[in-house]
């Protein structure tokens, strides 16, 4: 029972610390005059992916690389099917108003690159360098687009950014950053260590734990935010947020973690889970290119597909 309780405690710490880090990072950037669009595409993306990053690094250091790999692949699948599906059941997501075609194409390209590197058998340091170089290109394109908006007098809108307060005092920003940076490694260690114990005690593979318990746990902040956005009828940004988060997970999490150690790719990833992740990404085609809303029916379909995926895994 204790490993389950400590895993839950680690997850709670991760959620609270991730929220603190995002609040601090967003408001520090606003106080320093960094464009809000750059904040949302870089610092917020890194902040919301920080739990996945810390878990991946902790898993590799604890000799449980399958948890690191499962966390990234499972989180990307959960972000599409669960994070978009569940909120759509409440109020629908008005994704027809969100133009994410360019970023979506880049996300598909990142997915294909990730799968191709996985078929080499393991993610090594040079694989990580390739992923981070692609990430640098993506961020450079985002920065150029933001500058073009600014030159046209179209600075980014803060309305869709949670907890954005350009007047927040620096001492309060410092507290948020401190709590986030201290809490994330603590929560990651607790969750990974005890998830590994659970896996070995009950004969469950570390791959399954990473794809389910850890992946869903690290996707909870995005899920909670998207549910509230749907309830407030501000869910048109949800699709773009999921696409950006998935792209950052693919390129940054494994890319940075390879500097800590190599990440072997288990055969089950190559046979099944990577293809499920890619298929989940392709499900978004009608919502991105055909400007369809994710209504309650589609929400039920996406949620049902995720439940089916979990049943197959378990």
Can you characterise this structure?
It is built from twelve helices and two strands, in the order αααααβααααβααα. The relative contact order is 0.24. The two termini are 20 Å apart. It has 314 residues and is mainly α. It has one domain: NCX, central ion-binding region (A middle domain of Talin 1), CATH 1.20.1420.30. α2 runs antiparallel to α3, α3 packs parallel to α8 and α5 packs antiparallel against α6. It is 77% helix and 1% strand. The model has no long low-confidence stretch (mean pLDDT 80). The protein is globular, with a radius of gyration of 19 Å. It has a two-stranded antiparallel sheet with strand order 1-2. The longest helix has 32 residues.
Question: Largest sheet, order of strands side by side?
Answer: 1-2
Per the CATH scheme, the topology name is A middle domain of Talin 1
User: What portion of residues is helical?
Assistant: over 70%
SSE-based structural type: mainly alpha
CA-atom Rg in angstroms = 19 Å
Strand content: under 5%
Poorly predicted residue ranges: none
State the helix count.
Answer: 12
Largest sheet: 2 strands, antiparallel
CATH hierarchy, class: Mainly Alpha
Shape descriptor:
globular
Overall residue-averaged pLDDT value: 80
> What is the CA-CA span between the terminal residues?
20 Å
């Amino acid at each position: 029972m204790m490993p389950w309780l400590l895993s839950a405690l680690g997850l709670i710490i991760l959620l609270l610390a991730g929220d603190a880090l995002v609040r601090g990072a967003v408001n520090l950037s606003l106080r320093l005059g960094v464009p809000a669009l750059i904040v949302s595409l870089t610092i917020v993306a890194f902040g919301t992916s920080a739990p996945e990053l810390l878990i991946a690094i902790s898993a590799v250091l604890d000799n449980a690389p399958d948890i690191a790999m499962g966390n990234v692949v499972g989180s990307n699948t959960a972000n599409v099917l669960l994070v978009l599906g569940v909120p759509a059941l409440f109020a629908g997501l008005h994704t027809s108003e969100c133009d994410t075609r360019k970023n979506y194409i880049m996300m598909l390209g990142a997915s294909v690159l990730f799968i191709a590197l996985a078929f080499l058998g393991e993610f090594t340091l040079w694989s990580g360098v390739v992923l981070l170089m692609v990430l640098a290109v993506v961020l450079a394109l985002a920065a150029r687009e933001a500058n073009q908006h600014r030159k046209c007098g179209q600075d980014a809108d803060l309305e869709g950014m949670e907890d954005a307060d350009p007047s927040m005092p620096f001492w309060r920003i410092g507290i948020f950053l401190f709590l986030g940076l201290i809490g994330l490694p603590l929560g990651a260690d607790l969750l990974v260590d005890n998830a590994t114990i659970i896996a070995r005690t009950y004969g469950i593979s570390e791959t399954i734990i990473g794809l389910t318990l850890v992946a869903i746990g690290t996707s909870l902040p995005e899920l909670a935010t998207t549910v509230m956005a749907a309830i407030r009828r501000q869910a048109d940004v949800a699709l773009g947020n999921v696409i950006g988060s998935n792209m950052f997970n693919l390129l940054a999490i494994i890319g940075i973690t390879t500097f800590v150690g190599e990440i072997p790719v288990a055969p089950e990833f190559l046979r099944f889970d990577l293809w499920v992740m890619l298929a989940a990404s392709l499900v978004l085609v009608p919502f991105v290119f055909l400007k369809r809303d994710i209504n309650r029916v589609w929400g039920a379909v996406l949620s049902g597909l995720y439940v089916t995926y979990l049943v197959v895994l378990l």
